[in-house]
Amino acid sequence: MVRSTCRPVMPVSLNMNMAMPSWFDIIGLSPDSQEDEVGIKQAAENVKALIDQEVKNGIPSHRIILGGFSQGGALSLYTALTTQQKLAGVVALSCWLPLRASFPQGPISGVNKEIAVLQCHGDCDPLVPLMFGSLTVEKLKSMINPANVTFRTYSGMMHSSCIEEMMDVKQFIDKHLPPVD
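Predicted structure:
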């Protein structure tokens, strides 16, 4: 079963404060830009509430994969690394790890220290440059079991998706959510 949730509409600083679908405010697009810590943490709490609801509905948390594109991928990574629910994995597409400086320098001790992560990025992404993906994967490998982190890049892909990437996502989901009897 796949659940999708829509982003709320809110003013975004980077968009001249015009309202747009957004999980949290985006202030800048450089690795050292100020981040909306309150908004990121609130968005993560909202996702954690969705996970709790799925668990109440009978789906074990270890059968849940979080995933998203761009801001949704960033939120998925942050949520997986801060939740107390053991998850099956994360699919993080064309994104970054928000509030990365708030995480420890070494391995995390939470329930998801062995979580499987598929991180994908286009090498021509002008919006979230590949450098963001590279910084993120290095940080992830220092925090969780590096053998469980897969980083794929796609030649010529901009801030979008491609068939090859979707096939990699399908393989990841098939591997980490095998059918139940």
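Summary: The helical segments are 37-56, 71-82, 130-143, 163-176.
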